[in-house]
Amino acid sequence: QVHLSESGGGLVQAGGSLRLSCATSGVVFSINTMGWYRQAPGKQRELVATITSGGSTNYADSVKGRFTISSDNAKYTIFLQMNSLNPEDTAVYYCNVNGERLDRTHFGSWGQGTQVTVSS
User: Fold this and answer.
1) Among 8-17, 25-34, 44-53, where is mean pLDDT lowest?
2) Mean pLDDT, residues 80-92
3) Which of 3, 50, 65, 93 is the most buried if burial means most Cβ atoms within 10 Å?
């Protein structure tokens, strides 16, 4: 079973920065894609950024140029550096991992979420 542990959320003023981390524990065959999603009150969960094991990245238009996703593949850990934060970035941020178990079946796991609040 894969367990995700997120950290780094908090309260920050508009224009500030935060760095989120997501560490993966558990034995797996491989991890294909890791990413960050967010859900604001009253809204659906949306993609923020993803990164593949090969390092390819994808960003939501709303965060391009402000957020950077990176990974430490050896430790199955990803990071989200968030700069120039604005109140619209306020949400619970969730880590997501997709890969293969040892028996080569696919899995997808979610973290418990970390709150990011940006004050104006």
Assistant:
1) 25-34
2) 98
3) 93
* CA–CA dist 75, 95 (Å, integer): 15
- Interatomic CA distance for residues 84 and 43, integer angstroms: 22
3-state secondary structure of 91: strand
Helix (H, G, I), strand (E, B) or coil at 88: helix
pLDDT digits (tens, 9 = 90+) for 102-113: 999 999 999 999
Rounded to whole angstroms, how far apart are CA atoms 63 and 73? 23
Q: What is the DSSP string of 5-54?
A: EEE--EEEETT--EEEEEEEES--SEEEEEEEEEE-TTS--EEEEEEETT
